[in-house]
């Protein structure tokens, strides 16, 4: 699933309204459900992305005070409107109308908790309304368990007569398996007039969009029904459904990478965010997690257990069971196993970062090698330098951090401790266990605690 690979042309003249004001108490979370992240996007962001693929116009997302944080997460991909109080779906749409441009004549109304919905289904509902010239069309699905859903009552011609909420349904109506999906295409002018005729529910006092279906039928312009797959249209209401949806999205994304020539050894265990870019012939081993704006170059192999976030990795690299965050790695680099490259690192071509090495805000010039069990923080390492096992740059003195510079072709012995801002010059060397408190000049060799020069350049 690649968001840049669009199918049919986007429909003109349609604006999506996405309802994302609900908290979702059945998630048992302090975070509103539409803000929960699924493979690189908040839940409602998947619905916004589908609408962006389906329609040329910018969507409007309806938020409540509880879900206001979604606006920042969407990053300007949609306009927002606020529903100050939870007065029902019809009230939410009414709140959205004020945020719509005058040019918006057709509307697509969708729920923000249906992250598996596709652009194709959205377009299909709009086309069904256009072809029948009905003021409204709706999507429905045949539920394995219809409990909690409004039941769609069909007329003899296959159009919708009404939608009956479960609490208002008779036993016979509750036995109906066709349920309302909360996805509608509607004529804006008709909607504005029809909203005024909706009366509050006696049970909750809320205003429900489902009343529009009965109104259209009563006026002799019944709503056509578009049947969609349950997996696309079923809302996420609890943690079980959330996990199922996450697995389905993972499958979509991974199938896209397979189609583009990526070798996913076990797609069922690779978790890859939607933003991640992977070149053909890269190899992703089982149990890998790739997050955020990560990119993986051709023929690079990412080993089992690796977790890579917001990092670019070049071609022909090997990453073995390591964690990498917010960094840039050039081509022909090998990392790990069990290395940790923290944010702000830049690794040039032909470098080696060994097992249990940790780097933070550090740059390695071409050909540099960092041996195992080392920590380099706020460090600049020159070309071909060899950092021996257990080398540590002590970058923090308890008050502020300082940078360490290690020159090209330098060599640090096992267990060297460099106390910043002291550094090691070009071609300089330290012996095992050396504690560097002052700069080691170019070409010199130092040993001891504290370091003393035993060989001049």
Give a quick summary of the entry:
The chain has 457 residues and is of the alpha/beta class. The chain contains nine helices and 41 strands. Helix 1 packs across helix 4.
Any chance you could write out the topology, listing elements then pairs?
Elements: E1 14-19, E2 37-38, E3 41-42, H1 43-54, E4 60-63, H2 70-74, E5 79-82, H3 89-97, E6 106-111, H4 119-132, E7 136-142, E8 151-154, E9 160-164, H5 171-174, E10 178-187, H6 188-195, H7 211-218, E11 225-227, H8 230-233, H9 239-259, E12 263-264, E13 271-272, E14 277-278, E15 283-284, E16 289-291, E17 295-296, E18 301-302, E19 307-309, E20 312-313, E21 318-319, E22 323-325, E23 328-329, E24 334-335, E25 340-341, E26 346-347, E27 352-353, E28 358-360, E29 363-364, E30 369-370, E31 375-377, E32 379-381, E33 386-387, E34 392-394, E35 404-406, E36 411-412, E37 417-419, E38 429-430, E39 435-436, E40 445-447, E41 452-455
Parallel strand pairs: 1-4, 1-6, 4-5, 7-11, 12-15, 13-16, 14-17, 15-18, 16-19, 17-20, 18-21, 19-22, 20-23, 21-24, 22-25, 23-26, 24-27, 25-28, 26-29, 27-30, 28-31, 29-32, 30-33, 32-35, 33-36, 34-37, 37-39, 38-40
Antiparallel strand pairs: 2-3, 6-10, 7-10, 8-9, 40-41
Helix pairs in contact: 1-4
Please, could you describe this protein's structure?
It is built from nine helices and 41 strands. The chain has 457 residues and is α/β, with parallel strands linked by helices. The protein folds into two domains: 14-239, Spore Coat Polysaccharide Biosynthesis Protein SpsA, Chain A; 261-455, Hexapeptide repeat proteins (UDP N-Acetylglucosamine Acyltransferase, domain 1, 3 Solenoid), CATH 2.160.10.10. It has a nine-stranded parallel β-sheet, covered by helices on one side. Strands 14-17-20-23-26-29-32-35 form an eight-stranded parallel β-sheet, with no helix packed on it. It has a seven-stranded mixed β-sheet with strand order 5-4-1-6-10-7-11, with helices on both faces. A hairpin with a 4-residue loop joins strand 40 and strand 41 (452-455). It starts with 13 loop residues before the first strand and ends with a strand.
